[in-house]
Automatic annotation (TrEMBL), chain B:
Domain of life: Bacteria
PANTHER family reported in the protein's UniProt record: CHEMOTAXIS PROTEIN CHEA (PTHR43395:SF10), SENSOR HISTIDINE KINASE CHEA (PTHR43395)
Organism: Phenylobacterium kunshanense
Pfam families the record matches: CheW, H-kinase_dim, HATPase_c, Hpt
Keywords: ATP-binding, Chemotaxis, Kinase, Nucleotide-binding, Phosphoprotein, Transferase, Two-component regulatory system
Functional summary from the UniProt entry: Involved in the transmission of sensory signals from the chemoreceptors to the flagellar motors. CheA is autophosphorylated; it can transfer its phosphate group to either CheB or CheY.
Keyword Transferase: yes
GO cellular component, one term: cytoplasm
Protein name (Swiss-Prot/TrEMBL): Chemotaxis protein CheA
Enzyme Commission identifier(s): 2.7.13.3
């Protein structure tokens, strides 16, 4: 049933969403597929000075300079030791194109809004900043991530 | 677009050019230019605007242009002297004309508040007041007609004669200015059948001869379809450096006997030219012997430059046509959509990167340097570089286009403030990328307003200080070490440092007990929210002050400085990159990272000896270079790549000169080479990083960071102060 709806789910005003799910360590996360431009393999990044630790550096994406965010570190987990097995999800966040370093991309999910449960009130700041909701699927828990705050606050540190 | 609208568009575009021409011509005349061609150009500009306006029935524009034109015509014919007052009125008239054009462009056929008054002034000047009010009827139709600046000393309507006898006696000056009599004679012989005689009677004995004097006289009989004007035109550029007489003759004469053999002369000239030309395209043949096909393809691309010589030298028999042909040749341009140029530039940028990647792959594949592939790549590299340079040159424009907007601004601000001001511009021909020019207009406008409003004192104060009543604002552009430097200076009172400091304290920008150097006080005016205007005036002082100027200059990759001398005036100096797209860089490595340092800032590189480097405590070090000490900045530490400084003998120092002329040495691990790199924005997808100006993509496809040398120097200076 899900599969059928997914064919025209994107613009459905009834609240159908397509999400792309990925793994960081043992955790599963997902983001709205509309923000995703492409998925590509890991290439070594050029380190950026004066940047937060979760910014791995920049890579060349067909002539554009693409910053890479170690999503594990950004979400407060252990840093990803990037290798060829890792994957970069290229996402468009408010006009800026950013690469998200994750362990693996697992699936495309089609869900309705009511499947997404609100985030329980937990103490973690990162949870409040990034997690937009939780999805229970086949006995797994998948956190829906909002990407707006993934890049470091521009104004704050630019001054 | 509807065709008429397109034509209209073109008309207004041309109007802009004509208006610019008009204004610069009038300004040149105000500056004492006596050249009749200048007044002709000014006249033509107004005339063309009138003609075009006629075609579109822009009544008020036509009327005003007509009155203006009449006055200019009087001036052109010498009946109206080009006095300072007259020119001031004309400049105001040019402003009104510009306003009329822009309102006509916006579709408002209103007229202008000053139009009537100025019309009367102009009419009074041309002595035609009231003569014909509704003029402009006579010749709209022929707006393509361009009045010609025919040589004034002869009647233009000489009936074509069968033959002319031209007596041509060069003076020594002609040769001294590197003119060549043979070339002039060759020109002349192209006008028709000709016979050249050389009179050597004045040549003295060898013992008396002055090698730099002129002794020869030629007499050339030219027959055929030509006239006196065409003949005189041949000698246009040596006018005054020779004795020249042209006489019409009823019938052509027989050929002379003792004449110089022009045929032989020509043959010699060509024989001289051909070998030098042919050797150039030949060289690649020898180099590329194993691979002839590509060369064969290339050959027709570069036809022998001989053909380039001939059209320029060719003189049409019809003098008017000839003159016009030369004009169009000199300024032949096409209008191209800027988007297309930018697309081309982007593509070439990609090509450069791609070529570098390819070159690296070839190196990695272990092909010998002398292999055909490697050599082909070298050629490719040269070609790409040339393409890139030419493409960049398309975007380069003289700063004139923004400078010429300023005289009007100065006139307006001067009128509003009641301060007489003279604007002096220098280096208008300095070329820089179009984007830079476009984005310069606002900051420059702001700075010039400021210079007049805040910089210059009132006429009374100037008189008290013993300065001439007329203030001078100078706008200068120049190229300096791969950047363009633009200076805006005034001869006013300079910065009132007491007051600036007082205001900064009052506004809480600095602590009340802060001790600041004069330079630091001067730079306070760039602080956001700083405005010294005691009362908010119309002209400047809306709180958006110099900080906006500084930000827009920085956004262009430039820097701005101020120097001020009390009682003498202030100078703002902006230094901007010539282009926003490429950069010549020195590729260096630091702690395993590849970085690019802009080569324009580097004075020299050196391998420091351990004994030349001295520690000042903490991590601060200085290096002694030829007796002087400059701070040694460990780039790896400045960027946070390493925590402990590199030993002095393990690296290479780049001696650099920063914006204010301050020197420092950047310490890096090694130099990899020198390369032109394409600048890629870091801000587009990320944000500004302190110490990093931009990024680029190197031959291996990886991103390298371009150092922002001034920030690195400034930051480490701050840290040094903290550490000390």
């Amino acid at each position: 049933m899900n599969q059928v709806i997914s064919q025209n789910g994107q613009n459905n005003p009834g609240g159908m969403k397509e999400l792309i799910s990925f793994r960081i360590g043992a955790q599963e996360f997902c983001v709205d597929i509309m923000a995703i431009r492409e998925i590509r393999g890991w290439t070594p990044a050029t380190a950026l000075p004066q940047s937060p630790s979760f910014v791995k550096g920049v890579i060349n994406l067909r002539g554009a300079v693409l910053p890479i965010v170690d999503l594990a570190l950004r979400l407060g987990f252990e840093s990803t030791d990037a290798s060829d097995r890792n994957v970069i999800i290229v996402a468009d966040i408010g006009g800026q194109v950013v690469g998200l370093l994750v362990d693996a991309v697992s699936d495309i999910l089609t869900v309705t809004d009511d499947v997404i449960q609100p985030t329980p009130d937990v103490a973690s700041d990162t949870a409040k900043t990034f997690v937009r909701g939780l999805i229970a699927m086949d006995g797994r828990m998948i956190s829906l991530i909002g990407l707006e705050r993934v890049l470091p606050d521009l104004e704050l540190e630019a001054a | 677009m509807d065709p008429l609208a397109a034509i209209r568009d073109t008309f207004f575009q041309e109007c802009e050019e004509q208006l610019a021409e008009l204004e610069s011509g009038l300004l040149a005349m105000e500056g004492g230019d006596q050249d009749p061609e200048t007044i002709n150009a000014v006249f033509r500009a107004v005339h063309s605007i009138k003609g075009g306006a006629g075609a579109f029935q822009l009544e008020s524009l036509i009327r005003f242009a007509h009155v203006f034109e009449t006055a200019l015509d009087e001036m052109r014919s010498g009946r109206l002297a080009a006095s300072a007052d007259v020119l001031k009125t004309m400049l105001r008239a040019a402003d009104v004309l510009a306003d009329l054009v822009s309102s006509a462009r916006a579709g408002q056929e209103g007229g202008h508040p000053q139009q009537a008054a100025l019309s009367d002034e102009l009419k009074a000047m041309s002595g035609a007041a009231g003569a014909d009010d509704d003029g402009g009827e006579e010749d709209w139709g022929d707006f393509e007609f361009q009045p010609m600046s025919a040589a004034v000393d002869l009647p233009a309507d000489t009936p074509p004669a069968r033959a002319f006898v031209v007596r041509f006696k060069p003076r020594a000056d002609l040769y001294a200015k590197a003119n060549e009599a043979a070339l002039l004679l060759r020109e002349l012989t192209r006008l028709g059948d000709s016979n050249v005689e050389l009179d050597t009677s004045e040549v003295p004995l060898l013992t008396d001869i002055d090698p730099e004097a002129a002794y020869l006289t030629w007499t050339v009989t030219v027959s055929g379809d030509t006239d006196e004007l065409a003949i005189r035109e041949v000698f246009e550029f040596v006018d005054g450096d020779c004795e020249l007489s042209v006489e019409a003759q009823g019938a052509s004469e027989g050929a002379g006997e003792t004449g110089l053999d022009i045929g032989a002369l020509l043959a010699r000239v060509q024989a001289d030219a051909i070998p030098t030309i042919e050797t150039a395209p030949d060289e690649p043949f020898e180099l590329e012997a194993p691979a002839p096909p590509p060369v064969a393809d290339l050959a027709p691309v570069a036809p022998p430059p001989l053909s380039v010589v001939s059209p320029a030298a060719e003189v049409h028999p019809e003098p008017l046509a000839a003159n016009q042909a030369r004009k169009t040749e000199a300024g032949a341009t096409i209008r191209v959509d800027l988007d297309r140029v930018d697309r081309l530039i982007d593509l070439v940028g990609e090509l450069v990167i791609n070529q570098a990647v390819l070159a690296q792959r070839v190196m990695e594949a272990g092909l010998a340097r002398a292999s055909a592939v490697a050599m082909g790549l070298d050629e490719l590299e040269q070609l790409t570089r040339e393409i890139q340079d030419s493409v960049m040159a398309i975007r380069a424009q003289p700063v004139k286009s923004v400078f010429q907007r300023m005289p009007r601004l100065v006139r307006e601000v001067a009128a509003m403030t009641g301060k007489p001001v003279r604007l002096v511009t220098e280096g208008e021909a300095t070329e820089v990328d179009k984007t830079v020019i476009e984005r310069l207009a606002d900051p420059l406008t702001h700075m010039i307003r400021n210079a007049i409003d805040h910089g210059l004192e009132s006429p009374e104060k100037r008189a008290a200080a013993g300065k001439p009543a007329e203030g001078v604002v100078k706008l200068a552009a120049m190229h300096r070490s791969g950047r363009i430097v633009i200076e805006v200076s005034d001869d006013g009172g300079g910065i009132n440092r007491e007051r600036v400091k007082g205001i900064a304290i009052e506004k809480g920008l600095i602590a009340a007990d802060a001790t600041l150097s004069d330079e630091e006080i001067d730079n306070l005016i760039f602080m956001p929210g700083f405005s010294t205007a005691a009362e908010v005036s119309d002209i400047s002082g809306r709180g958006v002050g110099m900080d906006v100027v500084r930000r827009s200059i920085q956004a262009l990759g430039g820097r701005i400085n101020i120097t001020s001398k009390p009682g003498k005036g202030s100078t703002f100096t902006m230094s901007l990159p010539l282009t926003l797209a490429v950069l010549d860089g020195m590729v260096v490595s630091v702690e395993g990272q590849t970085l690019v340092a802009p080569i324009t800032a580097i004075i020299e590189t050196l391998q420091p000896k351990a004994e030349d480097v001295h520690s000042l405590g903490g991590h601060a070090r200085v290096i002694s270079i030829r007796g002087g000490f400059v701070p040694l900045i460990d780039v790896g530490m400045a960027l946070g790549y390493r925590a402990t400084p590199l030993a002095a003998s393990d690296g290479v120092a780049l001696l650099i000169e920063g914006e204010g002329g301050a020197r420092a040495a950047l310490f890096v691990d090694a130099i990899q080479g020198q390369r032109q790199v394409v600048i890629k924005s870091l801000e587009a997808n990320y944000r500004q990083v302190p110490g990093v100006a931009a990024a680029t993509i190197l031959g291996d496809g990886r991103v390298a960071l371009i150092l922002d040398i001034d920030t690195i120097v400034a930051v480490s200076r701050g840290e040094m102060r903290k550490a000390g």
